[in-house]
Amino acid sequence: MNGNAAEAYRQLKANPYRPWPARITSITELTETEKLFEFRLIDEDVREAFNFDSGQFVELSIFGVGEAPISISSAPSKQGFIELCVREAGDVTRALHAKQCGDIVGLRGPFGRGFPFEEMKGHDVLLVAGGLGIAPLKSLINHIHDERHDFGKVTILYGSKNPAEVLFRSQFDMWRHREDFDLVMTVDQPDPTWDGEIGLVTKLFDRIDVDPANTYGAICGPPVMYRFVIDEMRKKQMDVDRIYVSFERRMKCGIGKCGHCGVGHQYACVDGPVFNYWEAMNLQEAI
Amino acid sequence: MFFRVMDKSRLDDLVRGLAKQFEVVGPVAKGDAFVFGKIEDPSLLRLDYDTTILPPKKYFVPQSEEILNFRTADGSVTADSAEVASRVLLGVHPCDLNALMLMDNIFLGEFEDPYYKSRRENTLLIGVSCEPRQECFCNAWNTDEVHWGFDIFLTDLGDRFFVSVRSVKGAELLDRYVTTREIEPGDTADFQRKTREFKDSFSADLDTAQIPLLLDAKFDDPVWDELGQRCLSCGACSMVCPTCYCFDIKDRLTPDGTHGARVRVWDSCQFSEFAEVAHGHNFRESRASRVKYRYYHKQWGYLSKFERVLCVGCGRCQRACKADISPRVVIEALQGGASR
Description:
Largest sheet of chain A: 7 strands, mixed
Distance between the termini of chain A: 40 Å
Shape of chain A: globular
Strand content of chain B: 15-25%
Number of helices of chain B: 11
Number of strands of chain B: 12
Strand order of the largest sheet of chain A: 10-9-8-7-11-12-15
Largest sheet of chain B: 8 strands, mixed
Radius of gyration of chain B: 22 Å
Order of helices and strands of chain A: HEEHEEEHEHEHEHEEEHEEEEH
Order of helices and strands of chain B: EHEEEEEHHEEEHEHHHHEEHHH
Oligomer: heterodimer
Number of helices of chain A: 8
Number of strands of chain A: 15
Strand order of the largest sheet of chain B: 3-2-6-7-8-9-1-10
Structural class of chain A: alpha/beta
């Protein structure tokens, strides 16, 4: 870190509520309700000081509308740009969807505890995503991809409601044919074009082999999905403290103060949003 | 810590002296209750107050506060900490002094809050001893005493104050504005007698044994449904609480939309949308779950990080609640069923 970046880092820390201007550098329509946005922090030193882990999130500002917590979809290994996969769901995300390339928004972060990437090295990884839950997991998948030789078998199970809601489809269609990733996609409601699996993501567990002593799990999806996926992982004898889940909560401040993201006795924004299942089991009403 | 004795008749000198240098805030009468307000006239200061409607937290986290100003078009932000008045809070009870130290763990810990910090640094605290009211249960959490977290503390000995001096600033102010004398053995004896009387004057003890653990063990107890049916979700308990710190953040625009401010306002976990996420899922939809969460967080969540419960036994929530829900009621309900 050079002197300017160190100063930028100090400024980042001096007021954790301060959003930094970021320019939208690319917008990709993924589905009817989701777009992938790529941002570049305008201040070079702030950009250089912005380092994150997969599973962490940022607070996105649309000035005059407000802020929303969004998990980062790009890999930490991708320098200089931040990708957010955003569903149009509330005021802030609606306003973001109305933005054009070149428009400026605010970003602050990164916040929270992400996936234990270093700890996962040397092991097999089983990633299970449902719907928009693929967004934070995509960061982890891309990061693993960039350091592929450090990992054992990598299996990705991805469930969507229907083919129109499959996110990152072109990228995943390409990956399906790779030798070093075992990617299986499934939908509940197929259409004639669908050539993947049909049914809930939990059904895919029948067809995979897991080496329980050597496998880390990572799960992200709608609240209802966790219990069922964890049951399947437990049936495969995976350890409770090697199964990681990422929770969606209403992180308003991102820094453990506003109280909105309370989950059990902890705050998702600083203690999570990624927890291992042993921790999650000890959080009341978490799963 | 060192100690002085100040004749009660000198209190006016102190207030007048402080007013030369600071905005002086203290308890004043409002209707049949008391509030913390600016002391324009020393004779209006009521150090004999029982409690105030709102705790002093409003001087550190105001009900509504601009934390950023921005220009909409290019997202340029100014985030200067507000100009903060140099202020003295005079006449703060031990419960409220302890509450501020609990707030410090949140606002001055990881991700230091610059707005809270500047107010904290610009505010002197002068505590005063109190007489327990029927609702008080600070003794249950050991927050009936305060050993630091103030500049000066005045213990009322009838005709005089036993003055504990904690900080350099406090010592300087005493020196500059008021005549005090050294303590004598009789003063210390009276201080001890006063303390004993104080400790003996609390109403029935509250049985706090194993409460953090019981909150988990009785998480599905029907007592929560019963409390949930009574609760009105009005949030008054949070507003009057000296340790409730939750807030909401909103943007406000100028009429032409070119500029705006990001505003932080008090919030409460008792409000129905508090734990709702963007696409509409509400993690605490029922009142029972929200009442439970408030106690769960105060007596276990916060404790799991800071080894203190997030309650100082001030009794304000009991007074504010229209549905007779209070820490005493909840704790007694949780202890229910045990043979005593």
